[in-house]
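subagent[fold] <- orchestrator: predict structure for attached chain, return tokens only, no commentary.
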Amino acid sequence: VQLVESGGGLVQPGGSLRLSCAASGFTFSKYNMNWYRQAPGKEREWVATIDSAGGFTNYADSTKGRFTISRDNAKNTVHLQMNSLKPEETAVYYCNARSTWNNYWGQGTRVTVSS
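subagent[fold] -> orchestrator:
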């Protein structure tokens, strides 16, 4: 099982980034997918969820209206479009695949929001 995040980097406040997560080794289309983040010195927090079919999404209050989660089951990928980024959203962003029986994590991609 592999979850490989990409797309992180340095962005100015108010800027945008699109994170991607490439999945392999499991039946991607049967898993709900999530994005989490962990800022320096803080606990990991949930950011967004998309259900297995892509028909339902949910967001943390702090990201609603600015972040969009999407998935492509044909390509086994999930994305997180992040707009209007804030300095306090500097963190390592993690991709997570979850079913009733399994819970998989990627290694994370670092996002730094700074001028």
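orchestrator: received. Logging for downstream: Residues 9 and 111 are 5 Å apart (CA to CA). The chain is about 0% helix and 50% strand.
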